[in-house]
Target: 4-diphosphocytidyl-2-C-methyl-D-erythritol kinase
Amino acid sequence: MTTRWLAPAKINLFLHVTGRRSDGYHTLQTVYQFVNLCDVLQFAVREDSEVHLKSDFKEVPPESNLVVRAARALQAHSGTRAGTDITLEKVIPTGGGLGGGSSDAATTLVALNEFWRLGLSIKELAEIGVTVSADVPVFVYGQASWAEGIGDKLTPVAPLEPWYLIVNPMVQVSTAALFAAPELTRNTSPVTIRDFMDGRSTNVFEKVVVARHPEVGVALDWLRNNYRGFRAKMSGTGSCVFTAFDSQEEAQKLCDLLPKGMKGFVVKGRNASPLYDFSG
Ligand SMILES: C[C@](O)(CO)[C@H](O)COP(=O)(O)OP(=O)(O)OC[C@H]1O[C@@H](n2ccc(N)nc2=O)[C@H](O)[C@@H]1O
Ligand SMILES: Nc1ncnc2c1ncn2[C@@H]1O[C@H](COP(=O)(O)OP(=O)(O)OP(=O)(O)O)[C@@H](O)[C@H]1O
Model:
């Protein structure tokens, strides 16, 4: 038996860093929303308790892939002797601030919980997930959320679900390096959901990333100069940037004009994660 599951990308509608914890992790405020740009994972039975990954994604060895780390964390937590063969098809750009690795890990936890019949709650899966990476819980819960803590204290919200043009400037940025940047603003005063809805929010990583990776600034400027309907933003710690439209056609029209060296994705904003659209 094989089951097929989706792992969607997320975008951050804003991102503030409010402080630093004693373990070095930063506290933040953000709003996560999903988009229908998805990696695809398949899980098949094995007779032994090994976890094997087959993937076109060769940037990291299988042992470091967040999919394998999530599966092993689930084995350790549950004590199961079950194993699995996993196939991962990457669609989401890596190091693009779209949370692809974390989403793959979250889908692995949700899928294997069913596949191995472990009966763990979503809350338990999120608690295991946050030890793999900070963005895993929101993908496990699967609802667009206002987030605090390290991104793991979640309150469901329902922002508009426009069409987005996500632009990949074709550079990869390291999340760890950006959180470590001395010039990063780490003490933004907490804002409220109302402040966010009234537009009083930003992405504090944008300036830092644009200074280090000029391609990101070029992509933001291009979007801002060629479309006035929405002020283009950067997602997460970059490198991807996005702008919003009422219709797929409008988004596609701008996508077709993108200069060489930038790759566009026309996607739909989703408050309910495509992870839970179907399984099997
Ligand atoms: C920037 C965001 O994408 C916003 O959604 C996330 O906060 C990043 O989450 P993520 O990619 O899941 O991050 P992780 O893989 O857990 O962490 C990578 C590294 O980034 C730093 N890190 C990450 C998240 C956080 N709240 N504070 C941090 O300081 C840590 O040095 C950590 O070792
Ligand atoms: N399954 C995976 N998919 C993508 N990257 C993975 C995976 N497993 C491990 N990684 C490693 O994790 C790092 C982060 O990948 P990811 O694509 O999630 O970053 P990101 O999109 O910038 O995420 P974020 O917004 O959470 O910072 C990459 O450097 C990559 O090599």
In short: DSSP finds nine helices and ten strands in the chain. The mean pLDDT is 96. Strands lie at 2-20, 26-46, 51-55, 83-89, 145-148, 153-156, 163-168, 233-234, 241-245, 263-270.
